[in-house]
Amino acid sequence: MNGSEIGEFLGALLILTGAVASMLSVFGLIRLPDVYTRSHAATKSSTLAVLLTLSGSFVYFLFSENFISVRLLLGIGFVFLTAPVAGHVIIRAAYRSKVKLADISTEDELYEKIHGQNTEDTKQ
Hints:
By secondary structure, this protein is mainly α. The protein has one domain. The chain is 80% helix and 0% strand. The protein is built from five helices and no strands. Helix 1 (3-31) packs antiparallel against helix 2 and helix 2 (35-65) runs antiparallel to helix 3 (70-96). The chain is elongated. The termini are far apart.
């Protein structure tokens, strides 16, 4: 087995791992109780899945065709920077729109920072 075959295998393994991570993110979307936890699961796992898939494609083309794809590198950087920020902005918009937390949530840490008062004071 030469270096090219090992690189192709590694690229295919990364792509397969990205596909599995993408499939696992579906369980978070289905099973979690509210928009906040669902978005967290979707953002984290889909970012990981896309990064693994793009990295696998980059490695595969690097070893099989000796081709360095700048587009894949830009895609990796773009997804790495924008996906978590987009997830955060969506959750912040949901919170400011007063989307209710799940019943199993024990505390709202953001309430005090936004409204400037202690949550224990408002419960009494």
